[in-house]
Specification:
single chain; six-stranded antiparallel sheet; six-stranded mixed sheet; 19 helices; 25 strands; about 10% strand
Length: about 1200
C-alpha cells in the first residue's frame, strides 16, 4: 500500500469555517468541489496559512485579521482562527522529528497574537519554516499551487520564477545559510571599522597621558606625606575634643536627669490637675443628672397635684350632680305621693258614684214599675200610646246616656289638654336645658381639644428644646475641651518661645569664640561685626537639615565688614584667650555659583545658595559657602547626579547625607532639631504661629462662653415649656372631668325629653280617640232625641182626650228620663274617674322607672367619687414620695456643690504648684539646652574633623588611627603641612586619574590591536564559507536544472502530444542570480517564449512545468487550487490523467469545478454554503461507490 503523507486537516474559525471541520485525506487524489463562493479555496488558504504564510494578500485578504470568521446575521464573529495540519512522518520526511506523525497547529487572535505548535508543543514561526524547508512543502515551495503560483511561472520577469526552481533544486537552505553568512560578514566589517576608529582615537591619547601620569605620581608622594601629617594633627585635635566632651556628657546627663525629674513632677502635676478637672466634670455630670432627676420629680409631683386637683374637681361636679339628682328625686317623690292621693281620691269618688248609681237604679226600677202599672191600666189606645210613651222614654234615656257619655269625654279631653300643656312646658324646659347643656358641652369639648392640642404642641416644643439643649450641651463641652486644649498648647508654645529666645540671646550652641565676639559687638567694643552666618539667614524647615550639614562649622563663621574688622576681632580673642573663630570680610569674600546645568535632573531640589533667604549685601558670602553645593531629594538621586557630572561639585541630600566633590561620601544619622539653624527656624515658625494660636484661644474662649450662654438659654426655655406642659395637662384633666359630667347630664336630659315626647304622643292619640268617640256619641244623641220626638208626636196623636193619663205618663217619663240622665252622668263620671286613675297610675309607673334610672345615675356618681377618692389617695401618696425624693435630690445637689467648691479650691492651689513645676522645668530645660548645645557644638567640631578625614581621605576614625604617627610637636607639623601644600600647588592641578587612565588606555590599545587581527581573520573565514556555499549551490543548481529541463521536455511532450520545450538560463556565468526563460513549441507551431502563448497554453505549460518538478522532486503532497480553470475539456482530461500517473509518489488535493478532474478523483469533498457565510463539508468516496455499484 502506498504511503499517504497528508492525513488530516482540522479547521476552526478560519474564514468561512466557524465550526470545527475535519478533512481526512486517505486516497491518492482528493477533489474539493463546490459552487463559486462556497469556500473551496479557503481550504487551500488554510493549508498555506498553517505552513507559515505571513502575507495576507497571498491569503486573499487585506490584513491578517481577515482570516478569522467575521460573523453573519445569525452568528457572532469569532475571536480566533485555528488550523491543524496532520502529516505522516513514517518515512522521516522531517529528519529533525522522530515522531511517526507530525501535527502543525497555528492559532491567531483578533488582538494580533499568534501561536504555533508542533505536536501540541509551543514553537516559533522560525521553527515551522525550518521544519518545511527543502521538503517542497514550505510557504515558498511548490506543494501548494494556486493561481498565484501559475502567475509567478507566467510572469514577464524571469527572475521572479527563481524561487520555484531553487526550491525544486533543493538549494533554499544553502541560500538561507549564505544570506546568514553574508549578514555576519557585514557585521564583522562594521566591527572592524569601529575597532580601527577606536585604535586611531587611542593613539592620540597614549602620549599625553604618559606625561600626566608622571606628574600625578610625584603629586601622590607629596600627598601621602601631607595625608599622614594632616591625619595625625586632626586626630590630636579630636582627642582633645573628646576629653572635654566626657565632662560635657556627664554634666548633660545630670541636667537631663534633672529635666526628667522636673518633667515627671510637671506630668504628675498635670495628671493631678486633669484628675481635678475630671472630678469636677464628673461632679457636674452628677449634678446635672440630679438636677434632671429633681426636675423630673418636680414634674411628676406637679402631675400628681394636677391629677389630684382634677379628681377633686370631678368629685365636686359629681357631688353637685348628686345634690341635683337628690332634689329631683325628692320632688319626684312629692309628685308621686300627690299622684297617689289623687288616685285614692278618684277611687273614693268612684265608690261614691257606685253607691249613687245603685240608689238611682233602685229608684229607676220603681219608676219603671209604675210605668208598667200605668201601661196595664191604660189598655186599648191608651196601651198603644203608653207603648209609644215607653219607647219615647227609652229614647230619651238613650239620649240622656249619650249626653252623659259626651260630658265624660269632654271632661277627659279637657284633662288631656291640661296634661298636654303641663308636659309641653316641662318638655320645653328640658329641651332648653338640653340645648344649653349641649352648647356648654360643645364649648367644653372644643376647649378640651384645644387643650389637648396645646399639650401636644408643648410636648413637641419640649422635645425640640431637649434636642437643642443636648446639642448645645455637647457643643459647650466640645468648646470647653477645645479651649482647655488650646490653653495647654499656648502655654507650652509660649514656654518654648521664651526658652528659644533666651538661647538665641545668649548665643547657645555657638562656640566660646563666637559668644565672646558677639557680646563684645553688642557692647560696641568691636565694630563692623554683622554676626554668625547662622544668624544672617533663614530657610524653609524642609531644607534646614541639608543646609546645616552643608555649612557644617561655617554656620559659626562671623561676617564682618572689612579685613581690619576681622583682624581686630582676632586680636581681641588672643588677648582674652577666647579660642579661635573664622571671619568672613564682605570686602574680601568672592562668591562663585554652580555653572553646570542641573535643572530638571531627577531628584534635584536646588542649588543651596538659592534655598536660603538673606540680605542682598551677603550675596557673596552665601554664594561662596553654598554656591557649589546642590541639594537633592535622596541619596539615590544624588549618586545618579554625581555619576552624570563626574563628582564635579558637592551634593547634599535633604536628610543630611553628603557626596563630596571627587566622589567621597559622608553620611549616617543626623539630629533634626539640635542645630542653631533649626533652632532659628523653629523660633521663627513658633513666633509666626503664636499670634494665630492666641487668636484661636480667644476665639475658643468666646465660643465656649457663647455655647454656655446658649445652653443656659436652652435650659430656661425647656423649663418654661415644661411649666406650660403641666398647665396644659391640668387644663386637659379639668376639662375632661367636665366633659364626663356633661356626657352624663346630656344623657339624662335626652332620656327625660324622650319620655315626655312619648307621653305627648300618647295624649294626642287618646285625644284623637276621644274626639272620635265624642262625635259618634253626639250623632247617637241626635238620633235618640229625634226618635223620642217622633214617638212623642205619635203618642200625642193616640192620646187625644186622655189628658190625665198623658200627664201622668209624661211625669213618669220625665222622671225616668231624669233618673236615666243621672245614671248616665254617674256612669260617665265613673268612666272618667277610672281613666284618670289609669293615667295617674301610668304616670306614677313612669315616675318610678325614672327614679330607678336616677338612682342608678346617682349610684354611678357615688362609685365615680369613690374611685376618684381612691385615685386621689394614690396620687397623694405618689406626691408625698416625689416631694420626699425631690428633697433628697436637692440635699445631694447641695453636697455636690460644696464638693465642687472644695475641688475648685484644690485646683487653684494645684495650679500654683503646677506653675512652680513649670518654672522649674523651664529652668532645667534651659540648663540642659545650654549643655546640649555645647555638647552638640563639640560633637559638630568632632564631626567636622571626622568629615574632613572622610571627605579628604575617605577614612573612618579607626582607619585613621592606624595611619597616625607620633608628632614631635603640633606647630612643627602644621608648618610642614603648609610647605607641602605650596609644593602641591606648584604642580598645578594634577590628573590623579591619569595613572590609571594611562594604564587603562594602554591596555585597551593593546587589546584592540589584538582584536583587530582576530576580526580580520574572522572576515577571511566568512569569505571562504560564502565562496564554498556559493560553489555548492552552483553545482547543485546546475545539476538539478539539467534534470528539470529534461523532465520538462519529456512532460511537455507527453501532455501536449508533441512539440518541444526547454528551460534556458539568461546568463550561464551567473546561474545563481540570472533569470530563467521558458521556451516552448506546441505541435504545429513555431518555437516561442511563454509570454507569446495564449492564456490556456500558458496555463498548460505551467502545469507541465510543475508536473516535471514533481517527477524530479516529488513532494509528500500537493494542493492545487483550480490551476486547470483556463484549460478546455480535452486538456483537462489530459491534465487529470497525467496527475493520476504521477499520484504514486505524491498525494494530490485538488480544488476544482471541472468534470474531468472530478472523474479522476478518489474522494470528493463537497463544499456548500446552505447557511449564508458558513461553509460545510460533504464527503463522497468514489472508490467505495464503484465497489458497491460493481463498476470497474
Amino acid at each position: 500500500m502506498k504511503q499517504l503523507y497528508l492525513k488530516a486537516l482540522e479547521i476552526q474559525g478560519f474564514k468561512s469555517f466557524p465550526d470545527k471541520t475535519v478533512l481526512n485525506f486517505g486516497e491518492d487524489i482528493t477533489a474539493i468541489v463546490g459552487p463559486n463562493g462556497s469556500g473551496k479555496s479557503n481550504i487551500s488558504d488554510a493549508i498555506r496559512w498553517v505552513m507559515g504564510e505571513q502575507n495576507s494578500r497571498q491569503l486573499r485578504g487585506a490584513k491578517m485579521e481577515d482570516v478569522i470568521f467575521g460573523g453573519t446575521e445569525k452568528r457572532n464573529q469569532m475571536g480566533f482562527a485555528q488550523v491543524t495540519l496532520v502529516i505522516d512522518n513514517t518515512e522521516h520526511i522531517f529528519p529533525t522529528r522522530q515522531e511517526t506523525e507530525v501535527a502543525v497547529t497555528r492559532r491567531y487572535y483578533r488582538s494580533g497574537e499568534s501561536e504555533y505548535y508542533i505536536n501540541k508543543q509551543s514553537v516559533r514561526l522560525k521553527d515551522v519554516n525550518e521544519l518545511f524547508m527543502d521538503t517542497g512543502m514550505g510557504r515558498e515551495g511548490y506543494s501548494i499551487i494556486g493561481q498565484g503560483k501559475i502567475d509567478e511561472i507566467l510572469s514577464v520577469k524571469s527572475g521572479e520564477r527563481r524561487e520555484v526552481f531553487e526550491e525544486a533544486a533543493g538549494i533554499s537552505k544553502y541560500r538561507h545559510r549564505k544570506e546568514d553568512s553574508e549578514r555576519k560578514l557585514e557585521r564583522t566589517e562594521e566591527n572592524l571599522v569601529r575597532i580601527n576608529d577606536k585604535i586611531a582615537e587611542l593613539e592620540l591619547q597614549v602620549e599625553p597621558l604618559r606625561q600626566q601620569a608622571e606628574t600625578a605620581k610625584k603629586y601622590l608622594v607629596l600627598r601621602d606625606e601631607l595625608r599622614v601629617l594632616e591625619i595625625s594633627v586632626w586626630l590630636e585635635q579630636l582627642q582633645d575634643l573628646r576629653t572635654a566632651r566626657l565632662k560635657l556628657e556627664s554634666d548633660t546627663a545630670l541636667a537631663k536627669a534633672e529635666c526628667d525629674r522636673a518633667q515627671q513632677a510637671l506630668d504628675e502635676s498635670y495628671a493631678l490637675g486633669e484628675s481635678f478637672t475630671e472630678q469636677m466634670r464628673q461632679n457636674d455630670i452628677q449634678a446635672e443628672t440630679l438636677r434632671q432627676q429633681a426636675g423630673k420629680s418636680d414634674s411628676a409631683a406637679g402631675e400628681e397635684s394636677a391629677a389630684i386637683a382634677v379628681l377633686q374637681t370631678s368629685i365636686d361636679h359629681n357631688n353637685d350632680s348628686l345634690r341635683r339628682l337628690e332634689q329631683e328625686l325628692t320632688n319626684a317623690d312629692a309628685r308621686r305621693e300627690n299622684l297617689q292621693g289623687q288616685i285614692d281620691a278618684q277611687l273614693a269618688h268612684i265608690a261614691d258614684i257606685d253607691s249613687s248609681a245603685a240608689e238611682l237604679g233602685r229608684e229607676l226600677d220603681a219608676l219603671l214599675a209604675q210605668a208598667q202599672a200605668l201601661s196595664d191600666s191604660a189598655r186599648g189606645a191608651a196601651d198603644e200610646a203608653e207603648s209609644l210613651r215607653a219607647q219615647e222614654a227609652i229614647a230619651v234615656a238613650e239620649a240622656a246616656d249619650g249626653r252623659a257619655a259626651l260630658s265624660a269625654l269632654n271632661a277627659a279631653l279637657e284633662s288631656a289638654d291640661q296634661r298636654r300643656t303641663a308636659v309641653r312646658q316641662e318638655l320645653t324646659d328640658a329641651q332648653t336645658k338640653l340645648e344649653g347643656s349641649e352648647k356648654e358641652a360643645k364649648q367644653n369639648r372644643r376647649a378640651l381639644n384645644d387643650a389637648k392640642e396645646e399639650a401636644q404642641a408643648v410636648q413637641n416644643i419640649i422635645q425640640g428644646h431637649s434636642l437643642r439643649m443636648d446639642s448645645r450641651r455637647q457643643k459647650a463641652e466640645t468648646a470647653q475641651a477645645a479651649k482647655l486644649e488650646l490653653t495647654i498648647k499656648v502655654g507650652a508654645q509660649d514656654d518654648r518661645i521664651r526658652l528659644l529666645t533666651e538661647m538665641e540671646k545668649e548665643y547657645e550652641g555657638f562656640n566660646k569664640a563666637v559668644k565672646i565676639v558677639m557680646q563684645a559687638a553688642e557692647k560696641n567694643t568691636l565694630r563692623g561685626i554683622h554676626g554668625p552666618v547662622a544668624g544672617l539667614m533663614t530657610t524653609k524647615q524642609e531644607y534646614a537639615v541639608a543646609l546645616e550639614t552643608a555649612l557644617g562649622g561655617a554656620l559659626q563663621n562671623i561676617v564682618v565688614d572689612r579685613e581690619e574688622d576681622a583682624k581686630a576681632a582676632i586680636q581681641f580673642l588672643k588677648q582674652r584667650d577666647g579660642g579661635r573663630a573664622t571671619f568672613l570680610p564682605l570686602t574680601a569674600i568672592r562668591g562663585d555659583e554652580l555653572r553646570e546645568n542641573v535643572d530638571g535632573e531627577y531628584g534635584f531640589v536646588g542649588v543651596a545658595s538659592r534655598l536660603v533667604r538673606y540680605d542682598s549685601r551677603y550675596d557673596n558670602i552665601f554664594r561662596n559657602l553654598l554656591g557649589r553645593t546642590v541639594v537633592v531629594e535622596d541619596l539615590d538621586s544624588g549618586i545618579a547626579l554625581a555619576r552624570k557630572f563626574r563628582s564635579a561639585f558637592r551634593i547634599v541630600t535633604l536628610d543630611g547625607q553628603i557626596i563630596n566633590r571627587g566622589g567621597s561620601m559622608t553620611g549616617g544619622s543626623v539630629s533634626r532639631s539640635s542645630g542653631v539653624l533649626s533652632r532659628a527656624n523653629e523660633l521663627e515658625r513658633l513666633t509666626r504661629a503664636q499670634g494665630a494660636l492666641h487668636d484661636r484661644l480667644n476665639e475658643a474662649a468666646q465660643q465656649a462662653e457663647t455655647a454656655q450662654r446658649e445652653l443656659q438659654k436652652a435650659e430656661y426655655e425647656l423649663q418654661v415649656a415644661k411649666e406650660q406642659q403641666r398647665k396644659a395637662e391640668d387644663d386637659v384633666l379639668t376639662l375632661q372631668g367636665k366633659q364626663d359630667h356633661y356626657d352624663i347630664l346630656l344623657e339624662s336630659l335626652r332620656l327625660s325629653c324622650e319620655a315626655m315626647e312619648r307621653e305627648l304622643a300618647d295624649i294626642d292619640s287618646r285625644e284623637k280617640d276621644s274626639r272620635t268617640r265624642a262625635a259618634e256619641q253626639q250623632a247617637a244623641i241626635d238620633a235618640a232625641e229625634e226618635r223620642a220626638a217622633q214617638l212623642r208626636r205619635s203618642m200625642q196623636d193616640k192620646l187625644t182626650g186622655q189628658t190625665d193619663l198623658t200627664e201622668q205618663t209624661n211625669r213618669l217619663a220625665q222622671a225616668v228620663s231624669d233618673k236615666k240622665a243621672a245614671q248616665a252622668a254617674l256612669s260617665a263620671e265613673k268612666d272618667g274617674a277610672l281613666r284618670s286613675v289609669e293615667d295617674l297610675k301610668s304616670l306614677q309607673a313612669d315616675m318610678v322607672s325614672d327614679r330607678a334610672e336616677r338612682d342608678e345615675l346617682a349610684q354611678r356618681y357615688r362609685q365615680a367619687n369613690e374611685k376618684a377618692a381612691a385615685e386621689m389617695a394614690q396620687h397623694q401618696a405618689n406626691l408625698t414620695e416625689h416631694n420626699r425624693r425631690t428633697d433628697t435630690l436637692r440635699q445631694k445637689l447641695e453636697q455636690l456643690a460644696q464638693a465642687k467648691l472644695e475641688l475648685e479650691q484644690q485646683r487653684d492651689r494645684h495650679s500654683r504648684d503646677s506653675r512652680q513645676c513649670n518654672d522649674a522645668l523651664l529652668n532645667a530645660m534651659q540648663a540642659h539646652a545650654k549643655l546640649q548645645q555645647k555638647l552638640d557644638s563639640s560633637g559638630m567640631e568632632e564631626s567636622q574633623i571626622l568629615e574632613k578625614l572622610w571627605e579628604r581621605y575617605e577614612l573612618s576614625h579607626s582607619d585613621a588611627m592606624e595611619q597616625r604617627i607620633e608628632l614631635e610637636s603640633v606647630p612643627k607639623a602644621t608648618r610642614r603641612i603648609a610647605e607641602l601644600n605650596r609644593e602641591i600647588k606648584s604642580l598645578g592641578t594634577p590628573n590623579i586619574g591619569a595613572i590609571e587612565e594611562f594604564d587603562r588606555v594602554n591596555t585597551r590599545y593593546t587589546y584592540l590591536s589584538e582584536q583587530r587581527s582576530d576580526v580580520e581573520q574572522a572576515k577571511e573565514e566568512l569569505l571562504g564559507i560564502i565562496d564554498q556555499i556559493t560553489q555548492q549551490m552552483t553545482e547543485i543548481f546546475a545539476q538539478q536544472f539539467q534534470l528539470l529541463n529534461e523532465s520538462f521536455q519529456e512532460t511537455f511532450l507527453e501532455l501536449f502530444g508533441g512539440g518541444k520545450a526547454r528551460l534556458e538560463l539568461e546568463d550561464e556565468n551567473d546561474i545563481l542570480n540570472c533569470g530563467i526563460e521558458i521556451k516552448v513549441q506546441p505541435p504545429g507551431k513555431q518555437l516561442k517564449t511563454i509570454t507569446l502563448l495564449s492564456g490556456g497554453e500558458k496555463a498548460f505549460v505551467a502545469i507541465a512545468l510543475y508536473f516535471a518538478i514533481l517527477k524530479v522532486h516529488p513532494t509528500p503532497f500537493c494542493v492545487m487550487d483550480e490551476i486547470e480553470a483556463a484549460l478546455d475539456e480535452a486538456n483537462v482530461v489530459r491534465y487529470a490523467r497525467y496527475m493520476r500517473r504521477i499520484a504514486g509518489k505524491t498525494q494530490f488535493i485538488v480544488i476544482t469545478h471541472r468534470r474531468g478532474t472530478m472523474e479522476e478523483a478518489d474522494v470528493l469533498y463537497g463544499v456548500t454554503m446552505q447557511e449564508k457565510g458558513v461553509s460545510r463539508i460533504l464527503t463522497i468516496n468514489l472508490n467505495d461507490m464503484a465497489k458497491e455499484l460493481h463498476i470497474k
